[in-house]
């Protein structure tokens, strides 16, 4: 129901307006007022102040946007699917919203995913989100998916959070590609330098021209994280190793890829398989081996694994300001499907 009603004279700002609008579901009506559940909370309007009231049909169901490569999947559906690749250790629901916690490791596993109807007014839903994370001594964090070219504060929820002084954090891109897609350019095999006799004992890689190179064939694949996979993890992953290990145990179908130069592990990634999609996570290259083709070899192998399993589609998530990674993914045929921001409650 949409209701236009006249403000009390004391509430009218200088120069007007004299009327305001309420949009929502009518909860109750009596001889004096009508109570409306709005997305911002409960509103009570006196009947003698109503100038106009009309029924508003429900919003049309949005058709899912067409993603690159011909697959049809909407933003919300892909966001829900991706949760299986980084599942929380603790979760709850506010209506259809999913609240996730994993001891603070990664925003993906420690944020509310507001997909669907919370079943209660927006203000009450956000209060429940904030309280749930407060009980776990974590900051309230909301993941806001949106079209890649959109401002998250233009959505109803984003606007509401902005008005309540929530801070909007970094932008993340969700990229997809068909497994069968051919990279626009680049060699079939990306060279990785191998260890030389002059390599220092600290594990740094010393690439030298003219030496035989290893390729993506030097990527090992296992069904569980090996010692070498862990040894090539990022410092942050190692700092939270126990938490990450617990998360990985919740993924029913996965693969773990480790790249080698000689017998030295120099990078890794992992894959999570869900409903015809292969999700790429934890792409990491040893700092001493960056710009030597490690990530390209790992990604090529990840596509081979998906093809062998007859998984037609792939997704990954990358910080929008990581231009080197975004450029690499685009060169391998990945395209932006949508984006998301995190928003956190003001303290």
Automatic annotation (TrEMBL):
<feature type="domain" description="N-acetyltransferase">
    <location>
        <begin position="219"/>
        <end position="347"/>
    </location>
</feature>
<keyword id="KW-0012">Acyltransferase</keyword>
<feature type="region of interest" description="Disordered">
    <location>
        <begin position="178"/>
        <end position="235"/>
    </location>
</feature>
<protein>
    <submittedName>
        <fullName>GNAT family N-acetyltransferase</fullName>
    </submittedName>
</protein>
<dbReference type="InterPro" id="IPR000182">
    <property type="entry name" value="GNAT_dom"/>
</dbReference>
<dbReference type="GO" id="GO:0016747">
    <property type="term" value="F:acyltransferase activity, transferring groups other than amino-acyl groups"/>
</dbReference>
<dbReference type="InterPro" id="IPR016181">
    <property type="entry name" value="Acyl_CoA_acyltransferase"/>
</dbReference>
<feature type="compositionally biased region" description="Low complexity">
    <location>
        <begin position="222"/>
        <end position="235"/>
    </location>
</feature>
<dbReference type="Pfam" id="PF24553">
    <property type="entry name" value="Rv0428c_C"/>
</dbReference>
<dbReference type="InterPro" id="IPR050832">
    <property type="entry name" value="Bact_Acetyltransf"/>
</dbReference>
<dbReference type="InterPro" id="IPR056935">
    <property type="entry name" value="Rv0428c-like_C"/>
</dbReference>
<keyword id="KW-0808">Transferase</keyword>
